[in-house]
């Protein structure tokens, strides 16, 4: 697939839904070590609601409208911090793609940059705080580099997903600064961040979807 | 724990059921009791919304009424309401002139109000925000953005409510609310802990002979734990921090709120105000408006807070404007 159009996007949301349904218990266990164990539930519910919403609206609504509707329903469905942050990411990503009908490499870069910036602003997080931002910022960076060198969408996303996985590994060396995990401080060393894990799952699923 | 309860899990919703039965001028939207609004919004008026955790009555929902607020998203005890609840309140109270959010500086509330503002923006509703940060004990001068919002938000509600009732546009209501925010300071002192119903025991402990100046309304640590001093000495120490930031000189005018935290009798609040008033008198300043009672509580916490608003020609008439809400009525004298 060289670009994600509105009808493809509905398929991508279906895949995200399936991923977070499969990873639900893994995320619950991961979050339970230093959080309140609701991350797996939040993500599974958010993406199930998002898929139902975009499927009901249909491709005729257009790419950006679908992304916006997905973000809005996520904000409604799972009012936990991570649910609100993910919703913000989709709403900001939708705004960045206003008027576009397909997501190629430059659009993917713009989408994930806006997604990451939105999360950073809303969550008041900065790099190194051991959050999803530590994965999404390098993802946006990798896609911007790929766009500048004219790389096609599938290899560009592959490069971004690889950097996401490397950065997830690096979150093990960081100390949590946000949310309930912040109270655990040094005890978070050695653990991969649960939010950052969500970031990797988002990217890997998108990459697999585009590469098939 | 010794409380009137049926089930700790139903604490907030049963409290709300009582409120709707007692005050028919209030209702709720989206079939959600936690989305509290005025039954009859005023067409064309800027809507004022607030929100925050339960456990602080009359804060926050108690100020929804005539010439104050139009809606309130109600959270669990000491928990933020959701962005969706705030968004539902926003949609209902927007009467074509936009909505101003006035709430306290707590990270959960900020994330959710920001999200609600973004959802309202998609609906084409203009939203502005003023975030109360009046607690001088919670961060130093220069770090005001980290300060918690406490009882002083009462003055921001009063000013923004009166400005909106005068049918001023959103930008002007926001400017005046922000001016009130910048000119109000609060400091509190706690004598005992509060008990969150679903937790069932005291959040912290204060010895029988101790006090903690600067403690937050959820039990956040204050400036220091000391022996309980005489009332005048306690007020002197508290007011020193207020006067350091709001200088009171000859001819200056102020509004003062002496607030009980839930477990302190009004008699004691008047003993505190006596000293507060003397200190303004010594400086040749005038306390033009005074409110004494419970305005922002922390469940059964014993203690009090003092909020001071510096008045000017613009703020004074807005503070003096009459209001009528289920928890706070103020008539023209």
UniProtKB/TrEMBL annotation, chain A:
Residues 7-208 form the DhaL domain. PROSITE patterns: DHAL. GO terms for molecular function: glycerone kinase activity. One of its GO terms (cellular component) is cytosol. Keywords: Kinase, Transferase. It holds the Pfam family Dak2. Signal peptide: none annotated. This is Dihydroxyacetone kinase-like protein. It comes from Ancylobacter aquaticus.
TrEMBL record, chain B:
InterPro entries: DhaK_dom, Dihydroxyacetone_Kinase. It holds the Pfam family Dak1. SUPFAM superfamilies: DAK1/DegV-like. Signal peptide: none annotated. GO terms for molecular function: ATP binding; glycerone kinase activity. Residues 7-328 form the DhaK domain. One of its GO terms (biological process) is glycerol catabolic process. GO terms for cellular component: cytosol. Keywords: ATP-binding, Kinase, Nucleotide-binding, Transferase. This is Dihydroxyacetone kinase DhaK subunit. It comes from Ancylobacter aquaticus. The lineage of its organism: Bacteria, Pseudomonadati, Pseudomonadota, Alphaproteobacteria, Hyphomicrobiales.
